[in-house]
Amino acid sequence: MTSADLPEPDSDELKALLRETEQQVIYRLLYERRDDPPTMTEIEAFYADQAGGAHAQTGRRLRDMYAIFDMKPERRDGVWVYPLRGRATSKPSTTTRRKGISARVRGEVLSSKRCAQCGKTPTDDHVKLEVDHKIPHSWGGTDDIENLQPLCTQCNHDKQAFYSSMDPFEDQIRAATQHKEPHRRIGELLKAFHAADVEAPAQVVSVVASMHQYQDDWQRRMRELRVLGWDYTTSKRKENGRMMSYYRLTAFADWPDGNIRAEIERLKKAKKNPAG
């Protein structure tokens, strides 16, 4: 695989492809380290050094570059790195191009004047609020107001850092979100992480479970998978001052024909009334 067709950093060609300064900074590092691809941590540190400070959207800016360059992460020596291989082989469809968030919608989202995660306000805590996508575009999220929330700069930065760590599983996560039934979305997501021999973060499972329709008790949907012959383990650990939960799939079965929920209810009744 060759990268000979890649534009030089700071070239007019690159500036035409990447109009955002932050993306141009990221590209420079990826270009200079084509033989030794950087990790996301190194990308964020490089940008902070070049720009004089970190940016909450670094991970998202990098993911937006996937449509132009072949640079999705791969695992090398036990860590995920971002190799700049060449230009992307396909262009994004014009029918799926983002429309952006209007000033009216942005104002409505921020009208609560409170961070949806930590509860801090600009008036009392002197924080700046930003519009955040609950479900990222790269996972199938939209610019609809139902998918937007106000987050303070720090919470938004922390969330972006976490979501960036999920970049290696973006294709699998997006594939899981396409299923209409919550049980299948959860199950397919667990299988994807199982195939990579890593634990699935509860935060990701909850987001995928609530695609298409909000699930106020997605943990119950997980437990119901056991009725179908699936099983998993749960672990918890403290990270950055917060307790995080993870799931590891230990057994799974073929999906039943027809409606999954109906089959679960049938099996539950059969277990309660074995003679019936």
Structure description:
The protein has 276 residues and is of the alpha+beta class. The chain folds into three domains: 12-88, Nucleotidyltransferase, domain 5, CATH 3.30.420.610; 103-164, no CATH class; 169-272. The protein is 41% helix and 15% strand. The chain has a three-stranded antiparallel sheet. It has a two-stranded antiparallel ribbon with strand order 1-4. Strands 2-3 form a two-stranded antiparallel ribbon. It is globular, with a radius of gyration of 21 Å.
Can you tag this structure with a few keywords?
Nucleotidyltransferase, domain 5, alpha+beta, single chain
What is the radius of gyration computed over CA atoms, rounded to a whole number of angstroms? 21 Å
What global shape is seen?
A: globular
Structural class: alpha+beta
Q: Largest sheet, described in full?
A: 3 strands, antiparallel
Share of helical residues? 40-55%
Low-confidence runs (pLDDT<50, min 5 residues)? 92-97
Topology readout:
Blueprint: H1 12-17, H2 21-32, H3 40-51, H4 58-64, E1 69-70, E2 74-76, E3 79-81, E4 86-87, H5 103-110, H6 122-125, E5 129-133, E6 148-152, H7 153-164, H8 170-177, H9 182-195, E7 200-201, H10 202-209, H11 218-225, E8 231-239, E9 242-251, H12 260-272
Antiparallel strand pairs: 1-4, 2-3, 5-6, 7-9, 8-9
